[in-house]
Amino acid sequence: MCYLSGKLLSITRLETDSLLLFLMLIDSTLETKGEILAAICCKSSSHPALLCVILRVIRIIPTVVFFSFAQEVIATNMQYQHETRHRLHPIRIITLLLLCLIPLSLWLQADGSFNHPEPASISYLKKDQSTALPERPENHLKPSTALGITDLLAIDTTEISQDPIFQTTAFIGDSITEGLQILPSFDTIAIMAGRGLTLLKAAENLTDWQAGKPTAIFILLGINDMNYTSVDAAVYCSRYNDLLDALNKYYPDSTLYVQSILPITSNYSSTLISNEKIAEFNTALKQLCTEKKVAYIDISPPFCLADGSMNPEMSPDGLHLYFRHYGAWLGLLKHALEYS
Question: Scanning 121, 201, 323, 338, which has the fewest C-beta atoms within 10 Å of its C-beta?
Fold first, then answer.
């Protein structure tokens, strides 16, 4: 049939080439439609892989038919070209019209006025295409860095205390926090601290505390509540909650940072304080901070042994820190300010 059709057409070589070009355009269009149909069917089918294979085979059939027809047209045209060179055949007029449709189709496709909606995206990445993937957008958030205990313990206390990042902060704590007051660079920093300071006393002192407008307030309290008031974890968290609410009232623009209670050495003598009780209080305190969406900082890792107790080499009495190790503590707080 293709042979007879070629005889009837008997078009010129130029028209044959133009017709081939048109057939290629049709085949390309059908290929696109096949992709859309395959994507839609595979999206809604429970056997997408099988449907894709079937649809791709069906899509090839028009291509085979078109090019078989085109080969017959060329062969027949070469034989009958001299008979039709000066004959005005109706097929010539049809061919010219088809040629006019090619730029029109390209213009419509480029203009976008005849575009079809995008099909569901189904793509299979080949190994050799992995390098052609677009680069991931740069993350503008400052990435966090891991803090090694060795690096923390190597921080010089005096040097880090001079970091400008602390100049807009404030501190509330017991005698451990009180030790910051001997740093010359902390002379202008608001510090509410003292031996025996408890949660209740800190909340009372807020009415007279002149801290200015700190960007951050660090809180380290709890060991004196165990030692002097003998409270349990529930009462401890209730009083801590009251203090946080009061701080939010007096300093609504300040970010609050709650620090964990430091452990004691294993040979520290006390009937009211133990590392088991400290761990219980810290667990309850961390849960409270999660509920109130307040930052919680575990400051114990640089100063603890494997069993969780205070390293005796870092404490003069089993409870407080040597001044030279304040650098590691301030390093943790600086890290919290930068990456929390």
Answer: 121
Measuring CA to CA, which residue among 59, 54, 32, 35 is closest to residue 122? 35
Q: What pLDDT, in 10s, does the model give residues 248-299?
A: 999 999 999 999 999 999 999 898 999 999 999 999 999 999 999 999 999 9
Quick check: 134 pLDDT over 90?
no
Give the whole-angstrom CA distance, residue 243 versus residue 238. 9
CA distance 273 to 264: 8
Nearest to 194 by CA among 171, 177, 212, 218: 177
Q: How far apart are CA 290 and CA 298, in angstroms?
A: 13
Handedness of CA 279, 280, 281, 286 (dihedral sign): positive
Looking up tokens 């009415």 gives 207
- Residue type at 32? T
Distance CA 46, CA 51 (A): 9
How many angstroms separate the Cα of 37 from the Cα of each of 23, 57, 66, 178, 284?
A: 21, 13, 21, 74, 59
Q: Are 185 and 207 in contact (CB under 8 A)?
A: no
Q: Taking the chain, what is the end-to-end CA distance rounded to the nearest angstrom?
A: 78
Structure tokens at 153: 């313990």
Distance between CA atoms of residues 109 and 243, nearest Å: 68
**Cα–chain center distance at 48:** 31
Do 321 and 152 form a contact (C-beta atoms < 8 A)? no
How many Cα atoms are found within 13 Å in the side-chain-facing hemisphere of 77? 19
Contact 144, 64 (CB under 8 A): no
Query: Residues 329, 321: contact at Cβ < 8 Å?
Result: yes
Task: Tell me the mean pLDDT in the region 30-55.
Answer: 48
Residue 305, pLDDT > 70, answer yes
Mean pLDDT of 135-151: 54
Distances (CA, A) of 36 to 27, 28, 55, 111: 14, 13, 10, 20
pLDDT (tens digit per residue) in 203-258:
999 999 999 999 999 999 999 999 988 899 999 999 999 999 999 999 999 999 99
To the question of pTM greater than 0.70 for the whole model, the response is no
